[in-house]
Amino acid sequence: MQCNDLRNEYDVVIVGGGMVGATLACALANKPATAELSVLIVDTQAMPAAGVVSNHMSFDSRSTALSAVSREILERVGLWEQVEDSACPIQKIHVSDQGRFGNTKIDHEDFSVPALGYVLENAAFGSALATKLRELPRCDFFAPARVVDATPIEEGMRIEIEQRAADSSGDVSATPQSVSLTTSLLVVAEGGRSPLCDQLGIARSKEDYGQHALIANVALSQPHEGIAYERFTSTGPLALLPLFPVDGEQRASLVWTLDANEVESYTNLDEGSLLERLQAQFGWRLGRLKRIGARAVYPLSLRVAQEQIRPNLLLLGNVAHTIHPVAGQGLNLSLRDIEALVDTLCDAMTNAGEGKNKVIGSMQTLSRYLQVREDDQSLTIGATDALTKLFSSNAQAKVWLRKAGLLSIDLIPALKRNFAARAMGFD
Ligand SMILES: Cc1cc2nc3c(=O)[nH]c(=O)nc-3n(C[C@H](O)[C@H](O)[C@H](O)COP(=O)(O)OP(=O)(O)OC[C@H]3O[C@@H](n4cnc5c(N)ncnc54)[C@H](O)[C@@H]3O)c2cc1C
Question: Which residue among 56, 180, 312, 425 has its CA within the 20 to 30 Å range from the CA of 297?
Fold first, then answer.
């Protein structure tokens, strides 16, 4: 697609076609009222091809733990059936504290649910989204391109898009082509770094955790039996999440939180030495950790936008709230945001009659959405931050609190139910 193939005006423009932006487009197309809206997604990167793990910001080698509620949302959006075969069910969650007595086990059977959650490789989610987006008659996907400017106008936003087209040999042109168009609702979903927020003067708080997440897939000598392990170690929380085997090899997805000052000493290790360290921290519950795949590192911080809405403008996904992956809540929270947003837009359009495509950007509509989402957002952000600080500390008081916490969760059925309900995404 070239600049001059675009319309002059779209009802909705989504900046960023990552997991959040692309899911929003699918959710809009799935409801009769919002399916009428014309949608443009602009992304700096093309969607990954089917079955390819790329260095795409959203659809890289990471995996995402999805809650049971997120599964229901993806079912309602019509995406679940595309990813179901790649989503490994979590049958049990095992939480432990390295070298200390006290752990808790949560079993899906205790809660009469088929699974406590699912682990989905981001690349598999990416190819399902790419397939679905291609089927949407009212949605254009424009990439690689960048929204470089956004300005409020009467009843909308005007945006400038730059595209550096590649010629047949793949060489990218030095002079970008640019195009200007308008929209009734600009959704900024461009991830944790958001130049557009800076340009619009939208402040976002930032608290650096001084930690990095090292992620990789690990081959195991023993079946994981659908157990997700969360272990609190001297270096920080470490998760090994169950993945479906490939070519008969058992696999788990590693998310290892490490001190920012030490992360390089881990990433520079040869495979054998890294596996040795990991085995020492994690223990032998999964047998011998045999191999470790490509490693990637993510700096971890808490970022929250001070404004999520303005007339004809909305922030979604990591732009609105970037949280620590310790509890695997970031995308789950955004999927709940997406569902509430689409419901709110549908209601507003249904009640508006004439000019219903304009009502989607009004402050009345966007405030209603935010009102619905405020409690869940602040609870999830607050709880994740508290958990990160509690479980990343070696201070004796926090160690005792953790020990008491893990023991009591295991011993008091009501607490355990509550803990499990949160992990599954139920309030
Ligand atoms: C190590 C790790 C583990 C995680 N595990 C979990 C988990 O288990 N469960 C869970 O729920 N969450 C998890 N998360 C959080 C989850 O990954 C994020 O919530 C999710 O990726 C946010 O998606 P997004 O689309 O908002 O942003 P991104 O994934 O960053 O996508 C942003 C998109 O915008 C595009 N873009 C950027 N700038 C521009 C621009 N100027 N113009 C156009 N396009 C642009 C990018 O190319 C990209 O496609 C984890 C996060 C990390 C770091």
Answer: 425
